[in-house]
Amino acid sequence: MNETTLNLCDAEGAEAVMVSSKHIKKGPLYTFLTQWLGYGLLTNFGPSWHHRRKLLTPAFHFKILDEFGPLLQNHAQRLVDNLADLVAKTKGPVDVVPPVSKATLGSICETAMGVNLHALGKEEEYFECVRIMGCSVLYRMIRPWLWRDVVFNLTQHGRETKQAMDKLHNFTKQVIQERKRSHASTGASILDGDGKRLGKRRLAFLDMMLAAQREDPTLTDDDIRQEVDTFMFEGHETTAMAISWTLFLLGNHPEVQQRVREEAQEAGDDWQAVVALPYLEKVVKESLRLYPPVLYIARENDRGIQIGDKWVPANVNLDLQIFMIHRDPNNFPDPDKFDPERFSPEQERARHPFAFVPFSGGLRNCIGRRYAMMELKIMLAALVKTFSFKSVLSEKEMEFKPELVLRPKGGIVTNVTPLL
User: Fold this and answer.
1) In the prediction, which pLDDT does 2 show?
2) What stretches pass through the bilayer (predicted)?
3) Dihedral sign, CA of 52, 59, 11, 30?
4) Which region among 39-43, 287-291, 329-333 has the lowest average model confidence (pLDDT)?
5) Which residue, among 173, 205, 227, 165, has the nearest Cα to 38 in the 3D structure?
6) What is the dihedral angle through the alpha carbons of 32, 35, 38, 39, rounded to the nearest 10 degrees?
7) Could you give the 3-state DSSP secondary structure of residue 310?
8) Number of helices and strands (H, E) in the chain?
9) pLDDT digits 0-9 by tens, 317-334
10) Residue 171: other Cβ atoms inside 10 A
């Protein structure tokens, strides 16, 4: 691996890399994910990536996403119930990260594969396997002597990782085969020629990929497995930490929390009204600015790139430091201050378009960003309507620990009080 890296910490550097059509290959450390995810959208590159991106984009059309609103609402209510049980048993401050993580895992599994992990009794096993895989990637990243697969696979960590990966792969493959048999038994596609649903069955992303496979036989079952596993990885921990960090901030800013609560109460049980709430949108964006779940994005640089008035020669890797980009005082005065009004329409228009990139930007922007924002808002609205949150630690006291996503050291411990 090339050890020469340029860290980019401003919007101009982010724009130069993200809009480039020549620098779309992810950095070398992403290779640690390929055993699990293969070459799905996150790790793929070149013509194959362009083809797959074009193929999958319709699956995230807003009309398709509307199918998931009621499902996300159900998972939000289950999160509320589970948190209420946890608070009753603990009788003191609780770490909100585990229950939120299980909720987002359940929701992405049902939307990606059409499978209810809780109903199958697979929730704890799948959750633990995903945790092992995430930890293994970080473990290898900081131990260069384990970068070669043949060495890592001989270690105890390597053997545990393979066992977890095999379970995840086998589960996804089983679901794909069962879904294919279900499609075949209907005697017709569940999608019409315009990608619209036929009948009353709720679609999962898997259904749309199987429909695409009938149109494009080059899309193999293993390709579909890679994309489903990628959705599961990208759509689980990132949204879980985004929700948890937002609760942390709301727990430190009771006046903001109360305003969000009042706005959510006015929207009632209409999930579409919740998704359209303007102040909740500002709060979520400001939370993503201060605590972006994805800390950095790495790109290879095999041909050189012009960034501002500087030429970066080939073979100098490019690391986009999102945490630092979001705290650039040139775009965000008093950058450590939590201020949702930074995302008023007027301030957003006046700011550099690449100053805020929690979902990346340019050609490789996150294909599931609309889905993620839907889930964040629906779950947060349900939580603040039911509970009052008071964080144990202040923003200055909070410490981070390095993982694939931005995590707190010691969890996000919060006093959670049910509202009467």
Assistant:
1) 52
2) none
3) negative
4) 39-43
5) 227
6) 30
7) strand
8) 19, 10
9) 899 999 999 999 999 999
10) 22
Categorise residue 115: left if φ over 0, alpha if ψ from -120 to 50, beta otherwise: beta
**Residue 2, SS3?**
coil
* Biggest CA-to-CA distance, the chain: 62
| 8-35: burial string, b at 16+ Cβ within 10 Å, e else | bbbbebbbbbbebeebbbbbebbebbeb
Write out the two tokens for 43: 């790790």
Contact 10, 203 (CB under 8 A): no
366 belongs to an annotated ligand binding site: yes
Nearest to 111 by CA among 405, 374, 382, 385: 374
3-class DSSP state of 7:
strand
What are the structure tokens assigned to 200, written together? 């009353």
The pLDDT tens digits for 231-282 are: 888 888 899 999 999 999 999 999 999 999 999 999 999 999 999 999 999 9
Q: Higher model confidence: residue 192 or residue 119? A: 119
Q: How far apart are CA 386 and CA 86, in angstroms?
A: 14
Does 252 or 63 have the greater pLDDT score? 252
Would the pLDDT of 199 be above 70? no
What are the structure tokens assigned to 324, written together? Answer: 């630092």
